[in-house]
Amino acid sequence: MELTADEKEMLEGKQGNAVKKSMEILCALGEIYGAKRLIDVSSVQIAGVSYDNLGDAGLEYLSELAKDGRARVLTTLNPAGMDLEDWRKLGIPEDFAKKQLEVIDAFKKMGVIASCTCTPYFIGNLPRYSESVAWSESSAVCFANSVLGARTNREGGPSAIASALTGKTAEYGMHLDENRQAQVLVKVRAKLRAVPDFGALGYATGKKIGNKVPLFVGVKRASVEQLKSLCASIATYGGTALFHIKGVTPNRTRKPTEEVIITQNDVDDAKVALTDAGYDEPDIISVGCPHCSINEVRRIAELLDGKHVKEGKEFWICIARPIKQIAEQAGYAKTIEASGAKFACDTCMVVAPIKGRFKCLATDSAKSCFYARGKNAFKTKFGTLEECVAAAVTGEWKAKQAKQAKPAQPKKTETAAE
Ligand code: F3S
Fold first, then answer.
1. In CATH, what number is assigned to the domain containing residue 165?
2. Quick one: what percent of the chain has pLDDT higher than 90?
C-alpha cells in the first residue's frame, strides 16, 4: 500500500504509540484485502463495548491505547453491558458495573463520545451520501451503506478504534463502487405491513442469498423503523452489509442477472421459525433492537397509557439516552415508567449479562431472537410491538401465530436461479 508522508510518520510511531498500533492494524488489513491506499473517514462507530465481551484483556488493551490515543474524527460507541446510570434497576451485579465503567472511562479518555447506542444515526452521527466512514455493529453498518448511502466496511472493534485514532481506513470492500453493485435481484411477493414483516423478510432473504448484495423489487415503501429492522435482520441471518430497494434506498446499482423470489410463505415461515412453541408466558419482553426511535417510544407510551406491566415480568425498552431525554420532554417517559416498564439506556438484552435470569423473550426484533437463543439460551416469541406490549401487560403471549406454509408449488414464472 502506498502511504503518504504523514501516514508513514504515524506508522513509525512519531505520532505516539496508540497511533502506531492503529496504523499497524489498518495497514495489515489493507494488505490482506489488497487496498492500494488509506482514505480519510468522517466518523467512526465502535462496537464491542460490553465488558461481557471484552473481559479483562480487552479492558487492558483499551487502557493502553488511552494513554496517548485521541479520536481524530467524530466517534460514537455501541451499547455497553448496562445502563450507565441506572444499572442497579436492571439487576446488573456491582463488580460487573465497576469494570464496565472502567471501559467507558478509557473510551472517554480517548475522546470517544460514550453514546452507547447501535442507532448512532438517531443521535447525530449521520454521514451523508457517499461519505466514507468506519463503523462496526452489523445493523448500523447495513443502515449506513443501504439507507444513508454512506460507505463502510463491517469493521471489528479494534479496526474501528484504529480508524478513530488515525482518521483513516484502508480503501477496499464497500468503499469501492464495484463492490456496491447488486448481485441478486430479489422479487418480493409478500405483504409487508409491520416492522416484524421486514425482520422476517431479512431472515428469509439472508437464508436464501447469504452475504450477496440484494436489489429488492416489490417493496413500495418502508419507514425508518422498518428499514432498521431489515438492516439488523439481513445482516444477522445473511451477513450482508448492503442492500438496495428500488424506489426506496438512494444508491444506484446495475440490475443483476441472478434472481430469487420471496413469497408470502417465505415471510410466514420466517415468523414461525423465530417463535418457539410453548413457553406462552414470556418473562422478559424487550423492544428496541436496534435501539428505539422516538416514534417507537411514542407508540409504546400510547399502548401502555393507564396499564401496568404484570408482576414478575420485565419489560425493557432499549434506547439511546438522548432519545430517552426527548421522551421525557414529550411526556412519554412518565407514562411508560408509571406502567412499570423500564428504559434500558446505553445497553440491550443481548449485550447485558442476563444469561440464566430469564427463560423466554418476547420481542419485535428478528435479530434479538438470534442472540437470545444463541448467547442467552432463551426461548423466543416474535411479534409486533403491539403484541409485545400486550404480553408485558397480560403476562401471556397471544400473538396470532403465522401458519407454517405448505411446501410451495412454484409457478412457471417463479422459477428462480439461486
Ligand atoms: Fe443493538 Fe443490541 Fe440489537 S446492540 S442491534 S439492540 S443486539
1. 3.30.499.10
2. 92
